[in-house]
Design goal:
8-stranded parallel β-sheet; single chain; Rossmann fold; binds adenine; alpha/beta; 8-stranded mixed β-sheet
């Protein structure tokens, strides 16, 4: 049977298989879930559309969903993050319809989402809510067939909560990002490591001794700030949230507004989820040779229109590095076209953290499939017990044992009569 697909080159599949299996070594929790799903078939016959970064880790999730019985279609959640050998392997080796090409233009990106929706999904899985957006704007005819969905990322959850508040959300969605075993690890240690990895792969520039500005001190920003400091940079944090700003100060970082950070920065990395965080006024004062990157979900955090308008020429000087030669003579360097630098210039988060994120996705898909009929059209979190179970399984896989409360301790924690 031919598998519907649009990928760069199916002959890349063998390399993709090797790399998917390499990632699987670091994904023991997902493997346990896959084995159970294979036995129990919790998604049997359920049509699913998954719009995710097409990486080796995502391939392991897709195989897990397929083994659970799902009739799955996969498309990319970012035009630059697809690993073409993985997309080929998903089609050729694992028989999963996949629509994803690294470097695809905007039109192809949306064409792929439409192709992944063609079988009329009952469940959706998003990373950034683009499938939800297309269903609600362009394919409302399919909406009544969808019983539920899951969402991976902070930015997507913000969008979905706004839709739910407006009464515009057409079906219930589980916010995977809200699980502790997702955001505390993927956002912090995953983004921390993979963002620095992307910057280093793209530039091969020494980080030690440089001034490294991190815009946003959420879980992702915390991770990047800590890893940049670990490599010897002088790290400056910019924030709009006073609590997060205080936390950055007490974590030992210098905190200043972006107008003061931009002129001294050797690097600026944005991780805020908002637009024009590096705006024209900041670009006007940056040092000659400064490097700018984004590790937030959308490519809207750096004002690229202004950067282009201020530039006489733009040229690609290395893979993932564009030199903007400004009219005033300065040169600024933009990594990964302002898209997620960890996925555009590196391979995204390491498998060991995606193991937990995708354990949440797999269990989230099962949970919503079972519970959808009794849920409202709003945003849900996975039950705390599922989060705890994933943490236990991860610790077990790492060979780490912990203590358990005694009955006496449990009683103490639930009583209000015990005093000093
Ligand atoms: N998001 C960040 N890193 C990722 C990865 N390795 N795979 C899929 N999605 C990701």
């Amino acid at each position: 049977m031919t598998v519907p697909s649009d990928v760069t080159n199916l002959s890349l599949a063998p390399a993709g298989v090797d790399r998917i299996q390499w990632a699987a070594r670091e994904m023991p929790v997902l493997k346990l879930i896959r084995d159970r799903f294979h036995r129990e078939q919790p998604l049997k016959g359920i049509r699913m559309t998954a719009c995710l970064h097409v990486t080796t880790e995502t391939a392991n999730l897709a195989i897990t969903l397929r083994d659970a019985g799902a009739d799955l279609r996969v498309c990319a959640s970012n035009p630059l993050s697809t690993q073409d050998d993985v997309a080929a392997a998903l089609v050729q080796e694992y028989g999963i319809p996949t629509f994803a090409i690294c470097g695809e233009d905007n039109e192809t990106y949306y064409k792929h989402i439409h192709q992944a929706l063609e079988h009329g999904p009952q469940l959706t899985m998003d990373d950034g809510a683009d499938v939800v957006a297309v269903l609600h704007k362009d394919r409302r005819d399919l909406l009544s067939g969808v019983v539920g969905g899951t969402e991976e990322t902070t930015t997507g959850v913000v969008r979905l909560r706004a839709m739910a508040a407006d009464g515009a959300l057409g079906y219930p969605i589980v916010a995977i990002n809200e699980s502790d075993t997702k955001h505390l690890f993927d956002n912090r240690y995953g983004t921390g490591q993979s963002t620095l990895d992307g910057i280093i792969r793209a530039t091969n520039v020494l980080i030690a001794g440089k001034t490294f500005v991190v815009a946003g001190y959420g879980w992702c920003g915390r991770g990047v700030a800590s890893r940049a400091r670990g490599l010897g940079a002088h790290v400056i944090v910019t924030e709009v949230d006073p609590v997060k700003a205080l936390e950055a100060v007490m974590d030992g970082f210098q905190v200043v507004p972006m107008v003061e950070a931009a002129p001294v920065a050797d690097f600026i990395v944005t991780l805020t989820g908002d637009i024009n965080v590096v705006d024209r006024a900041h670009l006007e004062t940056m040092k000659d040779g400064a490097i700018i990157a984004n590790s937030g979900h959308f490519d809207a955090e750096i004002n690229l229109k202004a950067l282009t308008a201020m530039s006489e020429t733009r040229r690609r000087v290395r893979d993932s590095v564009d030199e903007y030669h400004l009219e005033d003579g300065r040169k600024l360097y933009l990594l990964g076209e302002g898209r997620l630098v960890n996925l555009a210039a590196a391979e995204g988060h390491p498998a060991a953290v995606m193991d937990m994120s995708f354990a949440n996705q797999a269990l989230g898909a099962e949970w919503i499939a079972v519970n959808a009929h009794k849920l409202e059209k709003t945003v849900y979190e996975l039950p705390a017990a599922v989060d705890q179970e994933i943490a236990h399984l991860k610790l077990h896989a790492m060979g780490i044992r912990i203590d358990y409360l005694t009955e006496e301790q449990q009683r103490y924690l639930t009583s209000w009569q015990e005093g000093t």
